[in-house]
Structure formats: structure tokens, C-alpha cells
Amino acid sequence: MSATFATIQALLASPTVTAIVEDRIGPISGGTKWPDIIVYQVTDESYEGVSRTTDLSQARVTIEMRARSATQVENLAVAVKEALRNRRGIFAGKSCVFLKGVSDVGDTNDDMSIFRRMSDYYVTYS
User: Which InterPro entries does the entry link to (predicted)?
Assistant: First the structure.
């Protein structure tokens, strides 16, 4: 199970997110049409009990949102946050729970033609 693909499936299931980015959500950039979302996994850990490994794992993913304006990227960040807020469900074949991480950073490139927002989420799955 990939937390990356579980997150992509959860975002594609949100009409609010897809109204903004259509199907431009993936593990790599889809090209030069914006806005889009790139999801990548930062960590993956299994929980271990005192005497055995449990069936729970947790991964941290970063969701990078890109758009042509600051307003558009902020609207996309709100849509992503709403789509994953306390989200539970079966994604990528696993039972998943999404929780917002603490990292949430925005920036732009030098000529201000692309605005980005990067947010971390924890995906606990079994």
C-alpha cells in the first residue's frame, strides 16, 4: 500500500478539489497546466507493540499545490484541507485515516508565475 496513492485517491474523490484541478493530481507533475497537485511520501513507519508488530502503519505525505495566482493556490489549500479533514475510508485497498501535520509552507518562483503551497498530512493505515 502506498500512502501516496491512498492520498491521491482521497483527493480525487473530493468534488471540491477536482472542480479546481480536474484530474491533475499525481506523484509527479503532469506538465504545465495549472493548478495541479503533486503528492509524495516523506516517511513510512510500522507501529510495534511490546511483543509483536501491529497491523498499523503511518506515513507522512507532502501535498504540493501549484497555481498561477496566490488566491487560486490558497483556495486549493482550503479545498484539500476540507477534503482530508478527519477523513476515514478505504483507499488503495487499505483502511486509512488522514490527519493534518504541522508543516504548511507557501512560496513562489522568482518571477511570481507559479505559486505553491506545501502541506504535510499523516496517513495511518491497516
Answer: Gp17-like
Query: How many helices and strands, by DSSP H and E, does the chain display?
Result: 3, 6
**Span 72-126, pLDDT tens digits:** 999 999 999 999 998 999 998 989 999 998 888 888 878 888 899 999 999 998 8
| Residue 64 · residue 55 · CB < 8 Å | no
How far is residue 73's CA from residue 114's CA, in Å, rounded to a whole number? 9
3-125 CATH fold? STM4215-like (3.30.2000)
Half-sphere exposure at residue 94, Cβ-oriented, CA atoms within 13 angstroms: 20
What are the residue ranges spanned by the domains of the chain?
A: 3-125
DSSP string, 60-82: EEEEEEEESSHHHHHHHHHHHHH
What grid cell was written down for 77? 489549500
H/E segment holding residue 4: helix 3-12
Torsion sign, CA atoms 79, 80, 83, 86 = negative
